[in-house]
């Protein structure tokens, strides 16, 4: 099912804010990171997220003829580095799924490529976070509810 232009514009605004928020979040995690490698990896992820927002802002402008002015992103409060990393795995996989749905619903080849590239980056982020956890000597056990079809 194809997405309408107005739905896409609405999605782009949401994606821009999400990506900018994620960029700031990774910057804060980088400040908390225990090693140089962790800091560098988290800053790379922050740059990716910012780049995604910039890509989406260009598309928003192309579709509407107006520049999008995102809301300011407040600094995140992160109490537990380990738990924050585990939560990011879930957030990145959710973004991967969301961008995949949009990828499937747009017809424009340029937009499809944009959502494919963003989706790929989000998957890479989710796959790299366990490296950060392993570096801390932490298991990557994420508490997720599983429901049985039998129950």
Summarize the helices and strands and which ones pair or pack.
Layout: H1 5-32, H2 36-64, H3 81-105, H4 109-135
Helix pairs in contact: 1-2, 2-4, 3-4
Largest β sheet strand count, sense and barrel closure: none
Number of individual domains: 1
Helix content: over 70%
Summed up, the helix count is 4
Strand content: under 5%
Radius of gyration of CA atoms, rounded to a whole number: 17 Å
- Strand-and-helix sequence, N→C? HHHH
Residue stretches low in confidence (pLDDT < 50, at least 5 long) are 145-149
SS-derived structural category: mainly alpha
The total count of strands amounts to 0
CATH topology: Ferritin
Shape: elongated
Give the CA-CA distance, first to last residue: 33 Å
Mean pLDDT across all amino acids: 92
Based on the coordinates given, report the CATH architecture: Up-down Bundle
The CATH class designation is Mainly Alpha
CATH superfamily: Ferritin, core subunit, four-helix bundle
Descriptive keywords:
single chain, 151 residues, mainly alpha, Ferritin, 4 helices, 72% helix, elongated, disordered C terminus
Give a short synopsis of this structure.
With 151 residues, the chain is mainly α. It is 72% helix and 0% strand.
Account of the protein in words:
- By secondary structure, the protein is mainly alpha-helical.
- It has one domain: Ferritin, core subunit, four-helix bundle (Ferritin).
- It is built from four helices and no strands.
- Helices cover 72% and strands 0% of the residues.
């Amino acid at each position: 099912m194809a997405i309408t232009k107005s739905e896409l514009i609405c999605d782009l605004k949401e994606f821009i804010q999400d990506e900018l928020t994620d960029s700031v979040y990774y910057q804060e995690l980088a400040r908390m990171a225990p090693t140089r490698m962790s800091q560098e990896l988290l800053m790379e992820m922050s740059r990716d997220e910012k780049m995604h927002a910039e890509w989406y802002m260009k598309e928003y402008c192309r579709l509407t003829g107006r520049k999008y002015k995102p809301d300011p992103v407040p600094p995140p409060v992160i109490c537990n580095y380990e738990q924050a990393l585990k939560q990011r795995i879930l957030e990145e996989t959710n973004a991967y799924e969301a961008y995949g749905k949009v990828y499937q619903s747009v017809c424009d080849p340029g937009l499809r490529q944009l959502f494919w590239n963003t989706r790929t980056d989000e998957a890479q982020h989710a796959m790299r976070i366990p490296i950060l956890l392993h570096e801390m000597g932490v298991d990557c056990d994420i508490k997720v509810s599983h429901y049985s079809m039998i129950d």
